Amino acid sequence: MASVAWAVLKVLLLLPTQTWSPVGAGNPPDCDSPLASALPRSSFSSSSELSSSHGPGFSRLNRRDGAGGWTPLVSNKYQWLQIDLGERMEVTAVATQGGYGSSDWVTSYLLMFSDGGRNWKQYRREESIWGFPGNTNADSVVHYRLQPPFEARFLRFLPLAWNPRGRIGMRIEVYGCAYKSEVVYFDGQSALLYTLDKKPLKPIRDVISLKFKAMQSNGILLHREGQHGNHITLELIKGKLVFFLNSGNAKLPSTIAPVTLTLGSLLDDQHWHSVLIELLDTQVNFTVDKHTHHFQAKGDSSNLDLNFEISFGGILSPGRSRAFTRKSFHGCLENLYYNGVDVTELAKKHKPQILMMGNVSFSCPQPQTVPVTFLSSRSYLALPGNSGEDKVSVTFQFRTWNRAGHLLFGELQRGSGSFVLFLKDGKLKLSLFQAGQSPRNVTAGAGLNDGQWHSVSFSAKWSHMNVVVDDDTAVQPLVAVLIDSGDTYYFGGCLGNSSGSGCKSPLGGFQGCLRLITIGDKAVDPILVQQGALGSFRDLQIDSCGITDRCLPSYCEHGGECSQSWDTFSCDCLGTGYTGETCHSSLYEQSCEAHKHRGNPSGLYYIDADGSGPLGPFLVYCNMTDSAWTVVRHGGPDAVTLRGAPSGHPLSAVSFAYAAGAGQLRAAVNLAERCEQRLALRCGTARRPDSRDGTPLSWWVGRTNETHTSWGGSLPDAQKCTCGLEGNCIDSQYYCNCDAGQNEWTSDTIVLSQKEHLPVTQIVMTDTGQPHSEADYTLGPLLCRGDKSFWNSASFNTETSYLHFPAFHGELTADVCFFFKTTVSSGVFMENLGITDFIRIELRAPTEVTFSFDVGNGPCEVTVQSPTPFNDNQWHHVRAERNVKGASLQVDQLPQKMQPAPADGHVRLQLNSQLFIEISAYFATGSSMTYHFQEHYTLSENSSSLVSSLHRDVTLTREMITLSFRTTRTPSLLLYVSSFYEEYLSVILANNGSLQIRYKLDRHQNPDAFTFDFKNMADGQLHQVKINREEAVVMVEVNQSAKKQVILSSGTEFNAVKSLILGKVLEAAGADPDTRRAATSGFTGCLSAVRFGCAAPLKAALRPSGPSRVTVRGHVAPMARCAAGAASGSPARELAPRLAGGAGRSGPVDEGEPLVNADRRDSAVIGGVIAVEIFILLCITAIAIRIYQQRKLRKENESKVSKKEEC
């Protein structure tokens, strides 16, 4: 008999807000024409070629000329394939193939683009994803739509990984359309003034759109002012775009002027950035690239008092004497529009509305500097020095986020010593080492790890050495020191201890960008380094600065301060009231009820009514009586005394403010079971209403700003006090004692208990004007008791029990906590799936709880193991959190386990199906269920992951398989996975009931066959099997106890997975005899919790949430459980009843027909049975699934990539 199951459940959802979209965003509907196929061969170039027939000109998609594609001379990560589109085009998609009919293909690559073939920019998806997954064979096409698209003339494909059994091989195509570009160039001393049409009525809204490319980090982009000092200004300051708006009460902005809004970072990278400003009265929408901010300007209007002139590139206001000292813009503006007017076109035609000052031209010069990116701590750049000179002179510029790192090392000739230039604590330090002398040290600069470009000049002569950082100069005198310049300088790091160079990097290598390197009086050309004609290097990206701002947008929640290094970011949560990697988890209880259950006495406590939601904690008094009362005091007067006033004038309108904000109060009141507020009212002498209409003389205003005339527990809008409802007012003509107008003192003690209106924010009292009327009242604090989330329970008795909740999107942060108790050994607590992403918490073994998820980087797991079983029928507490920094899991008081996220992986968890549990199915004799992964050789658009088992033609080097079963039949086929390449995996029970596993990963070899004589597993009992393969190593675990490891010899790659079959297999071509016999026999009994990677075939068949991939033949029906003790081959009467709401199907299924779900609403489901029989108590704060959405722009149909073996 099943035990009684109780659960406490609460789901708090913070759904993403709707965002304002810029006008004209998105691609033209027909912007998908092939751009590369018609180009001549001369438009293609590359780093090298294996032979003339492997040249870049043969790299067009689906072409077979030459050797059938581009292949470089050497296959390494420094090779590239480049296309010149002839002019700037809008690029919306790319596609790749391998070399025709060869073993040469690229499995992942970078995509870079440029306007002029220099200063390349790397295309990034989802802010942090760098690479694209490529091909898994030579001829299939992998197509990716770019979200967002970009504009460029030149594109580069940089292979990252390729077929280990072949070489790099690529054929490519680029899709897009023509791009209109109107450009105006400002040299830092020029400006353009546009005079608007002077119409009688101002426009309803002002819209300014443009793109800019900045050559320097500071400068005015646009400025518009009015008659009274009001103005708007858009200015680039240290690579960030600052929008000033002044209503006219302040002077023009200065360095200390308050900033209205700052967006963007590193915008001085000499690449294009888009800006959109929309002003609608006082509403301002400000967008930089894809980051949008909305705000309300102060004052009556933000644009009505502005002049009819707007200047671009600087301040140009003829006839005005006002001084403005800010720097003009140096760079280019593109497609400059004001309310739909093309300002650049007017300027090019010298229209009278345009006034130009200085050197304004209509072409954008290309950058001349060549930056170098040091990608890792192992990176270095070795350059020849001026050997034999009696001085050392080196200059360069750098930018980085790291506080420490090696910048430059040089060894002097003839044993005269060495020097090292490095960063430490954000300061530049120089050390000169000479034999027999103590090191000479120089320090200059501070805060140099701010991501900005900093100039460094280092020189040393016989009498002194000096370092100049920006404008900070440090000099160290030297006494009779021999300086003899060395022959090699090491930038960013060292070659290695075995190189014999003597170079050392005690603080680690430099990660960041360098440019404008000079040694002596010679400028260094990094392109020569890239071509192998100068120096040597490792882990560099030449002609590109790959620095990114990991704090834009900031993932730190609740006001946590974001700081970063080259690889990662961190959040300082001090003083926020929150903790965790992203300041997500509240330090405080949600209510006084929670404090009471912790055994805390009465006193002042902080509570956080919405937990890890956006509302902060606030201070309350917890009165611990039989109930825990939350006391929230107001800041109003203790008592208000009222005296007569002229007729028709209010005697008193008193407002009451609280220590908590409106949102915090609303959350606390909604969380409570009951709230009330007490009002003590005394009145005397001649207070009476107009007897003709009975208008009330007093009312109160609640938190929703609605006026209420009901008092003390009466029904809303009844205009009665409690005595009116009870019929015992001192004057039966009136419904409140204090409205009776008696010539004596009377009182009402009122309890306001309509909690949806509490707390009271204002009380208004009026009088008819009798001069001696008098009254006083006292409003007490807001009192709340109970916690609705604390003990709301639900019972789950069977596997088909579940609860539906609205679909949620825990894209960036999701945390779950709950209590559970059970006597079974395994099962799923909760699960939610997306197209490929998922999140799951399960009891994997009696002593093991696992939190697993996939956001596109491949499945990740965090596991907590206990020395004692969890299935002891006692309550256990689970808390799991996943955020952009990683995942954590804690069970009871066991040590917390954590799994960090990859530095540049996917960050968004995209879920679109039900939150659900495992399901069990009964297979009758001869029945089968086939799960189809994907059609062979179909075009793949935006495939999600290199390691996804759902992608056709994916080469799997690892998979995890789990299943539970109960049967008495032998031989039996438990699971069969087929491949388009005649490779397969079979899991069978042999005639003696032993478990056998066969892998055939090479169709030219015999399969690897392994027998696991753990016991006779066809005994009618429930058994669990887990198979985990990592390349050639296979770990098999049975019933969470018996384990065995085996090694494959037939191969390590499972190619082109086709389908997974449960039950009878009609065709098993190429399988071994034992597998064919088991396939013919099929399976009779119960299967449960079947998983192959992320695929759940039973769930897909019996409760589909989208187009079905499953074909069922014969009698397959859902079961309540696969518990041991029931006989195998159970008749239909033992099957579970139909699933609630018609969502499931039982009984026979038409042969060959995919199962169809009758209810496919997007919803979230909490299940109460984990695999067989599990009872969950979802948290004192219950199942708290917290979604804290911080980035507003959501990307659709965006492909994802992962590092193949990285979590």
Describe the structure.
- This protein is mainly beta and 1207 residues long.
- The protein folds into 7 domains: 1-13 and 813-914 and 1162-1198, Sandwich (Jelly Rolls), CATH 2.60.120.200; 33-178, Jelly Rolls, CATH 2.60.120; 204-361, Jelly Rolls, CATH 2.60.120; 372-542, Jelly Rolls (Sandwich), CATH 2.60.120.200; 549-580, no CATH class; 630-785, Jelly Rolls (Sandwich); 920-936 and 951-1156, Jelly Rolls, CATH 2.60.120.200.
- 4% of the residues lie in helices and 39% in strands.
- It is built from 7 helices and 81 strands.
- Strands 2, 3, 4, 5, 6, 7, 8, 9 and 67 form a 9-stranded mixed β-sheet that branches. Strands 10, 12, 17, 18, 19, 21, 22 and 24 form an 8-stranded antiparallel β-sheet that branches.
- Strand 62 (876-883) and strand 63 (886-891) form a beta hairpin.
- The longest helix has 10 residues, at 662-671.
- The chain is globular, with a radius of gyration of 36 Å.
